[in-house]
Amino acid sequence: MITYKDAGVNIEEGYRAVDLIKGYAKSTMNPLVLNHIGSFGAMMELPEGYKKPVLISGTDGVGTKLEIAFKMNKYDTVGIDCVAMCVNDILCHGAQPLFFLDYIACGKLEANVASDIVKGVADGCLQSGSALVGGETAEMPGFYPEGEYDIAGFSVGIVDKDKIIDGHEVEEGDVIIGLPSSGVHSNGYSLVRKIVTDLDEKLGDKTLGEILLTPTRIYVKPIQKLMEKFKIKAMCHITGGGFIENVPRMLPKNKTAVILKDSYEIPEIFKYMMNLGVEKDHMYNTFNMGIGFMVCIDKSIKDEVLAELQAMGEKAYEIGYITCGEEGVCLK
Fold first, then answer.
1. Taking 80 as the threshold, does the pLDDT of residue 218 lie above it?
2. What element of type H or E holds 178?
3. pTM for the complete prediction?
4. Where located (predicted)?
5. CATH match for 174-331 among 3.90.650.10, 3.20.20.140, 2.160.10.10, 3.30.1360.40
């Protein structure tokens, strides 16, 4: 008799993975979730207080940063990256994340590894105020190499229609405030893996492997607090394409963001990569260069916004301003 296990799929290991994962998912639940892990679909009612609620969604993965996790045999942070890449994006439109779903694919399921990944997902959900309402773990022998995983996620958030942030009110003279990244985050790792060959090499008091696995920052809670007190005209999550591709996404036509490169200290990991031969201009078109999130505000409230962020324990920098023009972004 031929079984599913003979084909490379271990059902018992899948059951064990689910048992390990359930506790992490349960820790993210809130009263809006109407059912539990194991149903065919997740149910969540909308919170009260919204006059014209709009749902905003986003999906993303972790990309080739996962190869660093494979080599380091460390899987409990990449789930945070997956959540961060989704919730930071929908945050740019003023959305409060509601729930999250994940998808993990592998060649051979190892319950402990899957559990570590979902632990990171749950950590990211708690950091963003999301409920981890479901997901899928797919074991596909012969399709993925054994020992390798892929992970993707999907986030849904909510915002009142009249509070959607889309950049249409951005004006000449507005100020751009930058919040620091935690490092490389989750973009540009195909280039990172090409130039960084020794993950055990020290840079400061950490190895390059440890630095490169630092999870992506989740900006939801400080930005939500900021939105409660101040009018934010536009926001930008610096992901793939760096400053060059992402900053123009928050602007209306005929407006240019002037970014002052010397307005903050570039983290050592980016200086290290430039020393390996990556041109500075290319760095700004690939990486976040130390700024993971930007907000655009009226210059009249600049000092108050910076003071509020500082009171939250956030480092923040005035990194640029808005002018009229067609360039989208200008680095000075």
1. yes
2. strand 175-180
3. 0.95
4. Cytoplasm
5. 3.90.650.10
